[in-house]
Specification:
With about 500 residues, the protein is of the alpha/beta class. It folds into 3 domains: about 5-170, 2-Layer Sandwich (Ribosomal Protein S5, domain 2), CATH 3.30.230.10; about 205-395, P-loop containing nucleotide triphosphate hydrolases (Rossmann fold); about 425-495, Helicase, Ruva Protein, domain 3 (Orthogonal Bundle), CATH 1.10.8. It contains 18 helices and 20 strands. The protein has a 5-stranded parallel β-sheet. It has a 4-stranded mixed β-sheet with strand order 1-2-4-3. The longest helix is centred in the C-terminal third of the chain and has 20 residues, at about 405-425. The radius of gyration is 28 Å and the shape is elongated.
């Protein structure tokens, strides 16, 4: 966009959390000693652009103005971070000094880091910038080596070096294509998990209904194997889900190949992860593990080893699907709609309840350890599953059970049936109205009696009753049953554990 006498303005953008905000790079040339001043709440990486731009322009054969250059990054109340402003600042200087044609610059947004030899390098968040350019109907000018074909419907140009701008934007080609999609989730097949057919059934229910799940069992019982294979039975990412996940992963600098193959994210942070690493934060503020698991699976192994404060921070994201982070720079919202799967030993030594290995823990140690699994977070976990070591004879014999393909088909059919019910006005009762929904019975009287009897005998809380009803509804969907039967309620109660 044009500026005043001796100046020019260029479209740019900055990332704030997982949002992309518009930024106008204004260039003003004046007399005085050769120097450059950058204003507009720029961080260190942006301020260092002065040296990179000076060397890059000289290497590309352009002249650096001899007077004073003032660069304003508007709006001035938003912090600008990262090296992505190198390219728009350089373009503004070249346009203001008449060294490049200005045709087409008004309709383009520039993002890129400059190397000292004049090359244009990619920056983190390329997918987020592409989504922004498509939304604003601007032409995105980025590095030639960015992933242009990741986002459909965006017009883009790719620069290998800033010298290409000497002939104008019309001579700049498109960026290179998207990275080659990797194969689907390669954690293995459920057929390799021997002797855990009850657990596989629980995972089918969890995948069909999107339920959170906690496994409690001795070391070596297969908890991690079961969890790591969950993305393989979940439906592929839809177009909107894929774009959301790609944007978050690109901002965090994570690989995109697995997502491009349609596989849902699977994140398994270590129990030493910090609060900012799990929920989001840092400087600059970046998405955490729960946002990287958005539309996918968050697996917390050794749940009792996580700091209590870190675990309790999951309560709000589990309910709302959004993580709220407040810092000096302001309030940030990170998408965090994930499926939680957790695993834990029953005691510090892991042998409590094992028929073959005696537990070496005192009653006090066991009580303290299990208290870490309780509290408000545990009340938000839908299913609790006891995992035991498989029989050695089954492992030696190589007994095969359900495979990933078979479980995936069960999940697909259950979700299709639930969608059909939704079309009839008999969708799952997430609001807790267990008697009728939309004028149609959602639970027959005998099933309601079974639910009430279980609620009284187990002293279930209101949240526990609603949880039990939702799991029973998912089990009914797996059976293609319009009405929840008493056996569905009883099976759902088997995954309640010892909690109310």
């Amino acid at each position: 966009m044009s500026g005043g006498p001796g100046g020019f303005a260029v479209h740019a953008a900055c990332i704030r959390g997982v949002e992309v905000l518009p930024v106008t790079v204004e260039i003003d040339l004046s007399g005085g000693l050769p120097s450059m001043t950058i204003v507009g709440m720029a961080d260190t990486a942006v301020m260092e652009a002065r040296s990179r731009i000076r060397c890059s322009l000289r290497a590309a054969g352009f002249d650096m103005p001899r007077g004073h250059i003032t660069v304003n990054l508007a709006p001035g109340d938003v912090r600008k971070v990262g090296p992505g402003f190198d390219l728009p600042i350089a373009v503004g200087i070249l346009a203001a000094t008449g060294q490049i044609p200005t045709s087409g610059l008004d309709d383009a947004v520039f993002v890129g880091e400059l190397a000292l030899d004049g090359r244009v390098c990619p920056v983190k968040g390329e997918v987020a910038y592409q989504l922004y350019a498509r939304r604003e109907r601007l032409r995105l000018v980025e590095s030639r080596f960015s992933c242009r074909t990741v986002v459909d419907g965006v017009e883009a140009s790719g620069l290998e070096g800033i010298a290409q701008l000497a002939q104008g934007l019309t001579h700049v080609p498109e960026p290179l294509g998207a990275p080659r999609a990797a194969p689907a989730h390669s954690a293995g097949d459920y057929v390799d998990v021997i002797g855990q057919e009850i657990a596989k059934r629980a995972f089918v229910i969890a995948a069909a209904g999107g339920h959170s799940l906690l496994m409690v069992g001795s070391p070596g019982s297969g908890k991690s194997m079961l969890a790591s294979r969950l993305p393989g039975i979940l439906p592929a990412l839809g177009e909107r889900e894929l774009e959301e996940a790609l944007a978050i992963h690109s901002i965090a600098g994570e690989p995109l190949e697995g997502l491009l193959a349609g596989t849902r994210p699977f994140r398994s942070p270590h129990h030493t992860v910090s609060l900012a690493g799990l929920v989001g934060g840092g400087r600059p503020v970046r998405p955490g593990e729960i946002s990287l698991a958005h539309r996918g699976v968050l697996f917390l192994d050794e749940l009792a080893e996580f700091p209590v404060s870190v675990l309790q921070s999951l309560r709000q994201p589990l309910e709302e699907g959004v993580a709220h982070v407040v810092r000096v720079e302001g309030a940030f919202e990170f998408p965090a709609r994930f499926q939680l799967v957790a695993a834990s030993n029953p005691c510090p030594c892991g042998n409590l309840g094992d028929p073959d290995r005696p537990c070496a823990c005192s009653a006090t140690r066991v009580e303290r350890y299990q208290e870490r699994l309780g509290g408000p977070l545990a009340d938000r976990i839908d299913m609790v599953l006891a995992i035991r070591r498989p029989d050695a004879k089954e492992i030696v014999a190589g007994v095969e059970g359900l495979s990933t393909a078979q479980m995936r088909e069960q999940v697909r059919e259950a979700r299709a049936f639930a969608a059909w019910r939704g079309g009839k006005g008999d969708a799952p009762d997430a609001a807790g109205r267990l008697n009728r929904l939309g004028g149609r019975p959602s639970m027959p009287a005998e099933s309601e009696d079974a639910l009430l009897a279980l609620a009284r005998s187990a002293h279930l809380t209101g949240r526990g009753i609603a949880r039990l009803a939702r799991i029973a509804r998912t089990i009914a969907d797996l059976d293609a049953a319009e009405a929840i039967r008493p056996e569905h309620v009883r099976e759902a109660a088997a995954y309640r554990g010892n909690r109310g």
